[in-house]
Amino acid sequence: MNTRISSLEQENQKLKHLLSQTKKDMQTSLSAISHELRNSLTLIIGSMQLIEQDHPEIASVRDWSSIRSDLDHMQLFLQDLSSYKSLQFTRLNCCLCDLTAFLQDICHNCSSWFDGTHRQLVFSAPEIPFTSYTDAPKLYQAITNLIKNGLEALDSEGTVSLRLRNVTPEEAAYTGTEASAIEIKDTGIGLTSKQQEEIFRPFYTSKPSGTGLGLPIALDIIKAHGGTILVRSAPHKGSVFTVLLPRFPGPAE
User: Fold this and answer.
1) What would the pLDDT profile of 126-167 be if each residue is shown by its tens digit?
2) Which of 48, 82, 186, 237 is in the most buried spot, having the most CB atoms within 10 Å?
């Protein structure tokens, strides 16, 4: 019996190693393909911009703007795909972060998305300091993805609120350690129960111009910090995405 168990354990280790190597090989292949496609798209888009400069009248040609839009979408998709796949093998580079100042900077940088519209981005935080050990560039990407998601959920007007607060006792159970809560709330169209089950699945999207990777990227980044994202929503009642961020990052459950 012991010999049989030992043999199964060895086989299990071999399969784990094979699976890990297969994932790495797939990552390498996808990265290479994505890189080549992005280079080609960049050249095509650059050539089209030069054509427009030399021949402005071409902008009125039927389907020209549609082609430009499709190429821009492909470029965005490849950028998101590259970000999503690279997260699988990237370690965090954490340092102490003042979350209040960090989120204020994000609001300032994202405010241009709301300029000239009847939509607004607002920020609130307690006066007490909030600090956390985070990988600031990656956390920046996660939060901006969530703000963009909230903006896209709005109609012609509405509000996206970014709020920093303490976790509730119920929320603390998700991290099992001292944590902060970052809320991204929108007054948009809301989500059905089915959509809430699917939104973090890679490539799922209900938006015509969406890539289906923004929310999975955000979740992977927060999980890498040892946290998670909770969703509360209902159709026509907006959505609240709550990021639970431990003060000291660790492996997620």
Assistant:
1) 999 999 999 999 999 999 999 999 999 998 899 999 999 999
2) 186
Q: Which two tokens stand for residue 192?
A: 């059905």
The pLDDT of residue 63 is above 50: yes
Q: How far apart are CA 186 and CA 193, in angstroms?
A: 17
Cβ pair 244, 219 in contact under 8 A: no
Two structure tokens written together for 160: 């996206």
Choices 3.60.20.10, 3.30.565.10, 2.40.30.90, 3.40.50.620: CATH for 95-246: 3.30.565.10
DSSP β-ladder status, 131-134 and 157-166: unpaired
Q: Amino acid identity of 59?
A: A
* Gap between the Cα atoms of 217 and 145, Å rounded: 8
How far lies 109's CA from each of 41, 96, 102, 140, 144, in Å?
27, 21, 11, 11, 9
